[in-house]
Structure formats: structure tokens, C-alpha cells
Design brief:
The protein has about 270 residues and is an alpha/beta fold. It is built from eight helices and eight strands, in the order E-E-H-H-E-E-H-E-H-E-H-H-E-H-H-E. The protein has a six-stranded mixed sheet, with helices on both faces. A two-stranded antiparallel ribbon has the order 7-8. The two termini are about 30 Å apart.
């Protein structure tokens, strides 16, 4: 999935699905949602009333634009009570957007930052985390599509966060970049865990670790004899039940100015 943050008017953004955040308790559509409603000749606000859309956290309302906007569909996404909207809610919103995209068969999605008490940097990070984590799929062992399954599988390929405030853009990008890194690291761990042990031998895990090396991350491989010298009996005991030679992997990250050490050991 390709993600980007653009300083642009969201109404000019071409996409399959335009997601509009809406807080609970707000009687009328406001901001971008009001502009979209105007472009749809009041159709969105009419549907809000008919479907009794309240804006509860995660509540959604999808409406086709019939070619009146650049977006093929628009969706109102409830944010819940504005007073209680925090970082965790922002992360959950990212997850709801990924789910909305799947339900609407949308490959290209755009949205805006919601004006809330969450700063733009935090909002960008949380939104990215929720979106990338929720969009995760593990397809490595999926077979070919069956003939009877005629409906194509749609996955989110492009996500755009639109904003007009230059300062908010800068902060959101900083948070977004951090959020994407953290979420993609989690998804990498998911890939390793989801891979059957028959296809994730010690040498395979070592290769995956080596791929992470560089850019300040040191990498070292330890043989059985080196592991014995270090007294790594727990790992070696597990290896005795395998036909494959054990491999020890040592990754080291030394950030500038670090004063303490943190060690994480797995087996």
C-alpha cells in the first residue's frame, strides 16, 4: 500500500472512497463534509437524517456520488464524543478506514485530519498505525482463485491524507512516518510468525534478521560452538529436537547519545 500526505483541497482529490470524519453530537455537517454535501445537492445530509447517523465511534454511512465529485463514493465515519477523542481513538479510526475500504471495494482512499484535541503529529502516527496494521494480509500460501469465486479481491493500494494547513502537514508527516515504520515492523513480525516452521528454518530467520541490518543496526551470526561458549543452553536445548543446526543471531542498535542498554532475548 502506498501512502502519502498532500497539502491540497480534498474535493479535488480523485479516489474511489472519500472518508469524512464526523463527531457525535454535531447536529449539522460542517467543514469538508458540508462542502461535499453541497456538491451532492444535499443528498448526504438527507441520508444522515433518514439513517439516523449519530457519529458514534466507528459508525459509517456510505453514499455514491453519481459522478458529481472526484470521488466515486463518500463515507461519513463517526469519531465518537469529541471530548473523549484521544490517541487510541485515532488509531482505531485508521482501522475503521481500512475496513471501510474493503467493504466498499475501494483501492484508492482519501481523508482529512479531524480537528480535535489530538495534535497533528500524534494524529498522523496513530492513523498510520491503525491503517497499516488493519490493512495487513498474509497471502503467501493462498492458492489460485476458484472459478466459482467470481468476485475479485480488492485491497487498499493508495491512501492519501489531505490537509491545507502547512504546519499541520509538517507535524502529521513526522508522526505518519513513525507510525508507518512501527506498523510495518509489526507486520514483518506477523509474517515471520505466520510462516510455517517448515519454511522458517534457523537459516531463514537469520536471513530475515540480516535484511534488517545496516542503517545503524549491527548483525552477527553465531554458530553452535559459539553459542555453547556463551552458555546459551536454553536455545541449544530447543535445537536438540531439530534436524537443523542452531543459529544464533545478534542484532545491535546504537543510537547517538544513548546512555543505557536494553537487551531482548528470544529463542
Amino acid at each position: 500500500m502506498n501512502t502519502q500526505i498532500r497539502q491540497t483541497d480534498i474535493l479535488t482529490q480523485e479516489c474511489d472512497l472519500l472518508v469524512l470524519p464526523h463527531f457525535q453530537g454535531v447536529a449539522r455537517l460542517a467543514g469538508v463534509a458540508a462542502l461535499v454535501d453541497k456538491g451532492l445537492e444535499g443528498g448526504l445530509s438527507k441520508l444522515v437524517g433518514e439513517d439516523k447517523f449519530e457519529g458514534r465511534l466507528g459508525q459509517t454511512l456510505v453514499f455514491p456520488t453519481f459522478g458529481k465529485l472526484k470521488a466515486r463514493k463518500v463515507a461519513l465515519l463517526g469519531l465518537g464524543d469529541k471530548k473523549h477523542f484521544g490517541a487510541d481513538a485515532a488509531r482505531r479510526i485508521g482501522g475503521h478506514i481500512a475496513k471501510l475500504a474493503q467493504q466498499a471495494h475501494a483501492e484508492n482512499v482519501a481523508t482529512v485530519l479531524a480537528a480535535s484535541n489530538v495534535d497533528a503529529r500524534t494524529a498522523g502516527q496513530m492513523l498510520a498505525e491503525g491503517l497499516v496494521l488493519s490493512a495487513y494480509r498474509f497471502h503467501r500460501y493462498h492458492g489460485t482463485q476458484k472459478k466459482k469465486d467470481t468476485r475479485p479481491v480488492h485491497e487498499l493500494k493508495q491512501f492519501t491524507l489531505c490537509e491545507t494547513d502547512g504546519r499541520a502537514i509538517k507535524l502529521a508527516r513526522e508522526g505518519w512516518e513513525r507510525g508507518v515504520v512501527l506498523a510495518e515492523a509489526t507486520n514483518l513480525a506477523r509474517d515471520l510468525v505466520n510462516t510455517p516452521s517448515a519454511h522458517m528454518l534457523p537459516r531463514d530467520l537469520a536471513a530475515a534478521a540480516q535484511a534488517l541490518s545496516g542503517k545503524g543496526v549491527g548483525f552477527k551470526v553465531m554458530s553452535r560452538s559459539e553459542m555453547e561458549k556463551m552458555g546459551m543452553e536454553a536455545a541449544l536445548s530447543v535445537a536438540r529436537g531439530s534436524a537443523h543446526e542452531p543459529i544464533g543471531v545478534h542484532l545491535v542498535y546504537k543510537p547517538k547519545g544513548a546512555k543505557k542498554r536494553i537487551a531482548i532475548v528470544g529463542k
